[in-house]
Amino acid sequence: MASDPFQQVQDLVESQLGEASAMLETLKGLVAAPSDGEQLRWLHGELRKSLDALDAELRDFEASLEIMQREQGRFHLNASEVASRRAFAALSRSRLADMEAFVESSAAKAAVEKAARGALLGGAKGSRAATAAKHRLDEENNAENQRFIEQTLLQRQLLMQEQNEGFEQVGKAVSNLKGVAEAITRELDAQSYLLEDLQVGAERTEVRLSHQSRRLDNLLQSVKHRGS
Length: 228
Hints:
Elements: H1 5-32, H2 37-70, H3 72-75, H4 79-103, H5 106-121, H6 124-227
């Protein structure tokens, strides 16, 4: 049986939470002591995108949990395992909410607006800094997206493998039943042949007995005539 896909989902969510937390700490530092307005604006936007993607991932996972809870037998899960997964989802949701609260806070928005105004007044130096920051964050974002794609493909591959194994087991069971049915059919055919042979033998014996009886009757009649 393939490994539990939940572990892959958990690793993916924890990885995304870790990366978002690192971005949040950097953003907090920039909000508290602005040194690069362009980087602050870009980081604020990228963190918001990451949190939106993480929210979507958690929604899918929570929907899967609802199915798992309704059909625990199908997924071979007990109540404790379902509760553990719900606790992980709740903790992840709480961490996500904390990060969203800061991103949408008045302090963060004010810092972003101030940085935007500064960008309008900035010169070539600000433009170069913004370009460098954007390039750096683009690279980080591309790496994160690649990891997300790899993790998602691996998760789907494991699910498909598990389904295929289930189909193979069903196929083997059907094949075994077919073999049993064929064996029963052959046995019934053999028994039918035996019954036919017994019936033919009984008929032949009946004919011979009838013939012997007639001969005996004839013999008795002959003896009676001679005696008289």
